[in-house]
Request: fold
Amino acid sequence: MGLLDGKVALVTGASSGIGRESALAFARAGAKVVVADVDVAGGEETVGMIKKAGGEAVFVKTDVTKKDEVKVLVDKAVETYGRLDCAHNNAGIEGIGGPCTECTEENWDLTIAINLTGVFNCCKAELPQMLKQGGGAIVNTASVAGLVGFPGLPAYVASKFGVNGLTKSIALDYATENIRCNSVCPGVIHTPMIDRLTGSDPEALKAMEAMEPVGRLGKPSEIADAVVWLCTDEASFVTGVNLPVDGALTAQ
Reply:
């Protein structure tokens, strides 16, 4: 018996990386999964992986920067499965690296729109349904870059600090409504995003590994397992937390 049997989970940015692993982990825990992304092929592939493993899932193409599309996503989840118990608001981009003076307005606007406003749009659409049914759990993907500063990523760092603040605010607003809201703050996780940042260069990957006190990169499944746990009754007294899952990176 899974910890989330009979529950319905929604995951954005679920075509690859952490989002895909989260969708798969929700399914393994017994939840029906609504997979969302702008990448149709990747999203459909995630659904196929869930179904192949015996789970239930549906894909909804969603641009989280567009509140109307996010509303359609939540409506589709409820229309298909009758409720929405868990939401992992994960869609995000790294943006273009460089110090503040080199950060263009376009890069700033896009990074904030997807990483922060996108999470806000999702929470705003998910919360009314959770209120209506008497509870739910939301997990937002932030970053260790939402806990400590990193050079050369001003828009990304600002967006992730924003996600962590938004998470705490929502947790307090709905603390008496049986709705919990937490964030996960991944360390350096081996995802397509890291491959883009390093160009898959072995030396660059070694430099990334050197940032981690545990001596290795994290796995997307390690973040997914934390997300699913935060959505189970085992975490019933955990809300308003920005949880580092980072191999002790921020313990330094």
Remarks:
- The radius of gyration is 17 Å.
